[in-house]
Every structure is written in structure tokens, then in C-alpha cells.
Amino acid sequence: MAIAQDKTDNFDDLLTCTICLETFTAPKYLPCLHTFCKTCINTYILSTVDKEKTGTTFKCPICRQDVLMGESPGQPETWAEKLPEAFCESCEKCHKSFKMTGKHPIILLDDLVTNKETANISSLIYCEEHQGEVVKAYCVDHSKPLCTLCATLLHRKCEDVVTIETAVSGIKKSEKATKLSTELKETNKQLSDLIQNRKDLRTDYQKEAEFILTKVNEINNTLAAVSTDSSNIYTINTDDMTINRVLSNTFPSHGFCHINGEFILAHNNTLTWINSSTGVKTGQANTNGNTYYIYARERKNYICTDGTNTVSKIVNDIKVFAYTNDKLVSSRGVDVDTDGNVYICSFSSGNIHQLTKDGTLVRIISADSVGIKQPWVIRFKKNSNRFLVTCYNTGKVAVCEIV
User: Fold this and answer.
1) Helix/strand/coil for 326
2) Starting from the edge strand earliest in sequence, which strands make up the sheet with 318-324, in order?
3) Which of 26, 267, 268, 349 would staple 329 via disulfide (CB 3.0–4.6 Å)?
4) What does DSSP say about strands 397-401 and 301-305: parallel, antiparallel, or unpaired?
5) What is the per-residue DSSP string for 73-134?
6) What's the rounded Cα separation, in Å, for the pair 284 and 134?
């Protein structure tokens, strides 16, 4: 945990961990630039991964942005150690390369939190004319900050020379400074609103893209079923992309498939059969949960997620196989190729599992190998080994072929 402060009161905003609310110890930062104590973020990672079963990712405690730990993340216990330090050598080199910040003293955080006599050094301003001399006065006549040597040698005849504290106090109270501060606050608010609006638009787009890409099911060569919400299922003519009819649906669903005049709706731990013409419920079955999508060959011959890391094949209400794998976390889309092999998208694990007809693992395909991170839905072209797979976090669609 972090160490209590003494002489670091002026650095609260910069040095306080938002988890333990104390001064950083061994600070680590995330890609979103939010920073935490190493032990704090480690504890958070372990509790999050264990609770949400996310596999290779965790969310920033502040902005909830996904943090992906790479292709070989190792055990979650090691993730905090792999995160970059809050201020690295590259940052220090860059900081010293600018004229404005080149002369700023850089203090080790360890020195700061152990209360060495460095806490006040960042408030010092150094003279541009005399290296190493601290600015202590200000010449109002020439509008220039002065060190002791400047005041003695170059400005001793000036009539209006004041201490730097007096000059700063005057600037803070000036009408121009007040106006500028107000304008900066207004600009900052406008930028914040713009960024938030952009995030909202991106989220809406991703959700819409997800629904459109994942809830498309072929009925025949010219008709397809699409749903952008759980209330309506649209039958679309794929020749001219016009709506053929709209079916009102009163049953919840994440995804669905069409088979022999019926839709099978998948939602959490329930599968619901409805008549594709009338919307009347014709059947129901329960699963062990986490059921988002379903593949069906016949009305009572289907494959779907059957729990957090299990996919089952059911034929005539009998479980033919139940495939389970530690690298199958939060399974989503499922489909079958022309040879009958089963493909399962593992959202949190970032991979695609290929199984034989009887549920034996053939191989695990890394999502990175097809250019995506979090595979969501997979669909094979009819009578072909070509397929598309969607990415949840980017909305990207990858078109691939099994060779």
C-alpha cells in the first residue's frame, strides 16, 4: 500500500493513488494513463479477473477501458509487474529535451515519499541568464523575472522591482488573468463534452454494428432475418435489400437462428422456439447460462454455449457432447463448416476453438492471427469453408478461409 504523506501536500493530485487514496508506492500506469500503486492495481486485477473471468484483459478502475495483456499474458498475479513505471527513462529524456522544461529538477519518487528535503524544489524557477540561480524578484519596468545577479548587475537602476511572490500575486488578481482562466475553463468543458459525445457516438455505433452483424440469419437464397433489438425480427430481401415483413417478438434474445419455419432465440439460460410467421411460442429449453448464440441443424439438433466455459451439442433433448476448456472463457458465436467441424468464439480468451463433429478439440486459433482481439460472432458461407468473424471492441469484420 501507499505511504502516508508529510511534506508532499502540494502534490496531492499528482501523487495520490485513487484506490488507496495515499501517496504512490511503485506507481504503474495503464494505456489510458491512469496510475496506481503496484500492490493496489495487483489486488484489483486479481479480484476482477477472478470475478469476471476475463482471461487476458481487465478494465481500468477509473475509465473502464479494456487493458489487453498481450498474446502471452501469463498468470494474472504477474500482470501488475509487467505494467510500465509511471515515469520511465524515455519520459525523463523527453522532459529534458524541451527548453521550457530542460532545467527542471527531476526527483525520484522514492525520495519524495520518504520526506527527503526535495518537496519544495519543484516550486523554484531558474534564471535564463545565470545558470543555477533561482528567480527571486521581478522587474515591472522591463516585465522580466530576475535572479539576485540580474537585480544587482542589470536592473539596479530600475524603479519598480518587486519580489517574485508579489508579482505572482498581482498576476493572479489581474482582470486579464481572471478572464483567461475563465476562458480556459470554458474551453476545457467544451473539449470534455466533445470527447464524451464522441465516446457515446462510438458506443452507439458499436452496439448497432454488433446487432446488425450478429443477428443476421439466412432463411433461403433471397431472404434473411435481422434483428436490431429484441422487439422485432425483420425479414429482408437480399436481392434489393428491402424489408419483406416485420415479426413482433415478445421473448428476449441475444441471438437467434432460423430452422424449418421456426426461430430459436438464445438468451442467458433459456432457448425459446417461436413460429417464424406468427411469433407464437412453440417450445422452450434451459441451459446452464451464458447462452448468447445458437447453431441448429434441425429443430432438436443444435449447439450452444452451456455455461461460462462449456459448449454442448443437444440432439432430441439428449446431450451428445459437452466441450470444456480453460482457454474457452465467455464463449459467444458458434457455427459449423462444410465438413461438420464446430467453431466457437471465445470472447474473453481472444481465440476460436475448432472441434470435430463429436466435440474433440482440433486446434485453438488465436484471434490475433486473423487481425482481431475479441471474437464475437462467426458465420460460414453456405457450402464453403469461408467465414467471417466479428470483433466486439472494434466492430471490425475479418473474412477468412479454412485451408
Assistant:
1) coil
2) 294-298, 301-305, 310-315, 318-324
3) 349
4) unpaired
5) ---GGGHHHHSPBSS-HHHHHHHHHSTTTTT-----HHHHHTT-TTTTGGG--B-SSSTTPB
6) 80
Residues 339, 238, 377, CA angle at the centre, nearest 5°?
45
Q: Taking every pair of C-alpha atoms in the chain, what is the biggest distance, in angstroms?
A: 102
User: How far is the C-alpha of 18 from the C-alpha of 21, rounded, in Å?
Assistant: 5
Higher pLDDT residue, 114 or 289?
Answer: 289
Q: Say which amino acid occupies 39.
A: T
3-state secondary structure of 291: strand
DSSP assignment letter at 2: P
262-312, pLDDT tens digit by residue? 999 998 899 999 988 888 899 999 999 989 899 998 999 999 999 888 999
Q: If 0-12 CB within 10 Å is exposed, 13-18 middle and 19+ buried, where does residue 72 land?
A: exposed
* pTM: predicted TM-score of the whole model, two decimal places: 0.47
Is residue 375 within 8 A of residue 345, CB to CB? The reply is yes
Strand, helix or coil at 362? strand
Q: Which three cell numbers stand for residue 33?
A: 494513463
> Cell triple for residue 323?
466441450
> Quick check: 255 and 262 in contact, CB under 8 A?
no
In angstroms, the first-to-last Cα distance of the chain is 53
- Dihedral, 45, 48, 52, 53 alpha carbons, nearest 10: 30
3-state secondary structure of 150: helix
The continuous run of DSSP H or E covering 388 comes out as strand 386-391
* Residue appearing with cell numbers 477472478: 50
Cell numbers of 61, please?
A: 478502475
Burial class (CB in 10 A: 0-12, 13-18, 19+), 197: exposed
Distance of CA 197 to CAs 192, 203, 234, 286, 385, Å?
8, 10, 30, 40, 41
Q: In what order do the strands lie in the sheet with 397-401?
A: 375-380, 386-391, 397-401
Of 360 and 178, the structure prediction assigns the larger pLDDT to: 360
- What is the distance between the alpha carbons of residues 258 and 246, in angstroms, rounded to a whole number? 15
59 conformational bin, left if phi > 0, alpha if psi -120 to 50, beta if neither: beta
SS3 for 199-220 is HHHHHHHHHHHHHHHHCEEECC
What is the CA angle 385-391-393, rounded to 5?
175
CB atoms within 10 A of CB 332: 24
* Separation between Cα atoms, residue 21 and residue 12, nearest integer Å: 9
One-letter amino acid at 97 equals: S
